[in-house]
Amino acid sequence: MKQYPATAIRNVAVAGHNGVGKTTLVSALLHEAGAVNRFGRVEDGSAPTDFDPEEIERKISIGLAVAALEWKKHKINLIDTPGYGIFASEMICAMRAADAAIIVVDAVAGVEVQTEKAWSVADEFGLPRMVVVNRMDRENADGGRVMDQLQKKFGRSCVCIEAAIGKEKGFRGAIDLIGMKGFLTDDAGKTVEGPIPEEFAADAGALHEALVEMVAEGDDSLMETFFSQGNLTEDQMLPALRNAIRERKIVPVLFAAAGDHERGVEKILDEIVDLLPGADSFPAAATGKDGSTEVLPCDPNGPVAAIVFKTISDPFTGRLTLFRVHSGTVKADGTYWNTNRETAERFGPVFSPLGKTMNTVPDVPAGDIGVVAKLKETLTGDTLSAKEKPYRFPAVAVPEPAISFSIEPKSKGDEDKISIALSKLTEEDPSLKFHRDADTSELLLSGAGQLHVEIAVARMKRKSNVEVILHPPKVPYRETITRPAEAHGRHKKQTGGHGQFADCKIRVKPLPRGADFEFVDDIFGGSIPRNYIPAVEKGIQDTRKRGYLAGYPMVDFRVELYDGQYHDVDSSEMAFKIAGSLAFKDAMEKAKPTILEPVMKVAVRAPQEYMGDLMGDLTSRRGRPSGMDQIGDDAVVKAEVPLSEMLSYSAVLRSLTQGRGSFTMELSHYEELPKPLQEKLIAERAKLRKAEVEAE
């Protein structure tokens, strides 16, 4: 593939709801442009941008993929993105690298959840966009109905630049409303320009007039011309339309059936080239060495500055790094400075990607997207530049995980390999997190949803040959005391030789929540020698960690050691450690212990229309709402909810809000678990311990 200047490069993210044909559309665009020899299909695993084994097996897109094509002396980098909300981070990273977005909408289903999400992310990055109403050949397809939905949801900026010729099985192509020409595609996929079919002429004329008025609104001179002439020529309209799209005042809408006959596909390629902004349109802002912000022109001769927007861990080729060059030229075999990790990275060959196919190029100039293999330290979100003139781009903010699972290796031999395998997963997908819970000692893998975690586990098996078992995470309950008490612990054992003797007396007192544990030495007169006092504390510490009621750590209490006895010969550190443990157990019988549960500070965001159902659901989970905020069309309800009630909330929220809701939570405090739930928990833990003993 030849090199192109930034003005002739189009970096376009293709986004939308799952199942609308995004990957099929990308396949059709590649085939139409001659970038691939055959039309790739999701159904048979031949789609160029769905090449991961998990994608082929499940027939869904999981990660972003870049495929480059050439069309009318331009290079178009298409960035195909998943449509499932749990993979939203992939779409976010794709739009970080793009200069425009194509939002794909199903001609039957219309505007869906991820349509809105894609639109919102495009807004966050300030991206111009184009809407493609796909699958116009399906039964019940209705482009007019979808247009009404688009304008109702996103405003009158959504404007047809095409009129569909027919619908459902009768969909044959589209009318170009700019030049007022018909473009019909036959069953062989060949598109022919011709006159507008007579039966569509009146509707096309009305849509053309609406488009002209919309374009003229943004330009006073054009408005005068329009009023004086009653119309605008194609040459008059095009520059104003391009500018309006660039400024996001107009979102052009096109129609297609990208499947078997690739109808409308050729015109989409034309409009990407003619209407969407080039890679030089939006100079990127970066932080320089001195901390100041600098806007970098898209100049191939400028200082090197590239953002890494995707990392792929490949078991055969190693780590693949996808990057977008904003300034300068990244050359093969060059050395570049990772400003995030303050390390140099030596490049080997660089490539222009076409899905999993890598086409070798001598360099990647400003405005273009490239791939390099086997970088050692560089990860998603990092900036590559020259060491003598380092730059750093803002990090890409990916959604926080919504659900966690406890994982354990299926084979004991994999215990040492699991951390390495998990590290590779999180390198590839920054929306995955893993950590070992300090309270439960569980290894937790967190993601956007159950499917997200399951796919991560499947990838770990395939790429690292590590199998794990998923479990719901444990709730880190605590135990504490509710009243003061005094207790006595005596350990006495006589054998043929030295015996064992230790005696200690303690007071226990409740402490405020969050105080954890205090040990106070109140010994006077040497009733217990100083060297044995740490052993008493150690015995209490070890025992409190094992709990009293249900095996959970004891917290929020003070122990005062105030008296005891010892023997010159038979006393030892071990004896006093045992005595301390016995004193603690005695204290727990008197201090009325109870179980504490973690309560989370929860914030749920969703469209206002779902708030009633959400509030009711949170209340049923023993939640206590604490307030509500308004953010655009969404409301955010805040509440305190026990963690045990939130373990399956991700799936429930998705169901209640049709996938439109999201939530965050963090630990707020611990409070007493209701007595009936305590009794149930104690019984369950006793049963579990019995089973473990019998198994041994």
The counted number of beta strands is 36
Number of domains: 5
> What is the rounded distance between the termini?
66 Å
Count of runs of 4 or more consecutive helical residues: 16
Category from helices, strands and their pairing: alpha+beta
The fourth-level CATH homologous superfamily of the largest domain is P-loop containing nucleotide triphosphate hydrolases
Q: What spatial order of strands do you see in the largest sheet?
A: 18-17-23-14-15-22-19-20
Largest sheet: 8 strands, antiparallel
Global mean pLDDT? 92
Strand content: 25-35%
What's the shape? Answer: elongated
The CATH architecture term of the largest domain is 3-Layer(aba) Sandwich
* pLDDT < 50 runs, ≥5 residues: none
- CATH-assigned fold name of the largest domain: Rossmann fold
CATH class of the largest domain: Alpha Beta
Radius of gyration: 33 Å
Residue share in helix: 25-40%
Short description:
The protein has 696 residues and is an alpha+beta fold. Helices cover 29% and strands 32% of the residues. Strand 8 and strand 9 form a beta hairpin.
Any overview of this molecule?
This protein is an alpha+beta fold. The chain has an 8-stranded antiparallel sheet with strand order 18-17-23-14-15-22-19-20. The chain has a 7-stranded mixed sheet with strand order 2-3-1-4-5-11-6, sandwiched between helices. Strands 28, 33, 34, 35 and 36 form a 5-stranded antiparallel sheet that branches. The longest helix has 21 residues, at 675-695. It is elongated. The chain starts with 8 loop residues before the first strand and ends with a helix. The mean pLDDT is 92.
